[in-house]
Amino acid sequence: EERGSSFLSGAGGAPPAIRTGSWATEQPKRRQYVPPCNHVCPAGNDVQGFLKALADERVDQALGILLETTPLPSVCGRVCPGFCMMQCNRSEMEGPVNVRALERYVGDHGKAALEKAASRPERIAIIGGGPAGLSGAYQLARLGYRVTIFEAGAELGGLMRTGIPTYRLPREALDRDIERVLALGVETVF
Questions:
Q1: Which of 46, 141, 148, 182 could connect to 187 by a Cys-Cys bridge, CB 3.0–4.6 Å?
Q2: Alpha-carbon radius of gyration of the chain
Q3: Helices 99-109 and 59-67 meet at what angle, rounded to 10?
Q4: What is the pLDDT at residue 1?
Q5: What is the rounded distance in angstroms from the CA atom of residue 137 to the CA atom of residue 184?
Q6: Residue 11 has pLDDT above 80, yes or no
Q7: Please, what's the largest Cα pairwise distance for the chain?
Q8: How far apart are CA 144 and CA 184, in angstroms?
Q9: How far apart are CA 126 and CA 146, in angstroms?
Q10: How far is it, in rounded angstroms, from Cα 125 to Cα 47?
Q11: What is the percentage of the chain residues whose pLDDT exceeds 90?
Q12: What tens digit of pLDDT does each residue of 125-134 get?
């Protein structure tokens, strides 16, 4: 019994020595890293967020998440090179999540009410209704600016309409995404 009490209290009543090193008294620190799929997305999409909403069968919410960063989810789901899929953590197990197909589905089937900030008095002119012009108009309109797109062609879409074949990007999908932009009050001059 004498041996046991001295063992627990250490030599001369001092606390026992820590045999695992000084790190044993450190507290774990939690770090939040951006998932690889989100990190590499050029559009800045919340890939995991929209996939979670879709897994919970909330297609409209998934579309709302995508529309926070991209006005063209139906287009993106068809023509994006899929950097998110190249960096997918699931690649080592059963293969990457087919984010493009899921984004395409959400863009084609989801309904989302777009929120707009209070109207501002400034007017913005955008030259060209291609992907950059449409994206700029979309983001500015959501911030409350009055936006007009000046387009030299007969239709909006630019190279998405004239450079991508219809088997790769059906015109209905492109028109649906463009309609979302115009629904924010964006005007057009041809």
A1: 148
A2: 27
A3: 100
A4: 47
A5: 9
A6: no
A7: 97
A8: 9
A9: 11
A10: 31
A11: 63
A12: 999 999 999 9
DSSP string, 52-118: HHHHTT-HHHHHHHHHTT-S-HHHHHHH---HHHHT-GGGGTT----HHHHHHHHHHH---PPP-PP
125: Cβ contacts below 8 Å, ≥ 6 apart: 147, 148, 150
**Which residues make beta-bridge pairs with 189?**
150
Torsion on CA atoms 101, 78, 103, 75, rounded to nearest 10: -160
DSSP 112-134: -PPP-PPP-S-EEEEE--SHHHH
Assess contact for 130 and 157: CB atoms under 8 A. Answer: yes
Report, as an integer, the average pLDDT of 154-179.
94
The two tokens of residue 118 are 């209070």
Find, among 68, 64, 67, 101, the residue nearest to 85 by Cα: 101
Structure tokens, 11: 């030599």
Task: Give the pLDDT of residue 87.
Answer: 87
**Is residue 106 within 8 Å of residue 63, measured between CB atoms?**
yes
What is the tens place of the pLDDT at every residue in 77-127? 999 988 888 888 888 888 888 999 999 999 999 998 888 888 999 999 999
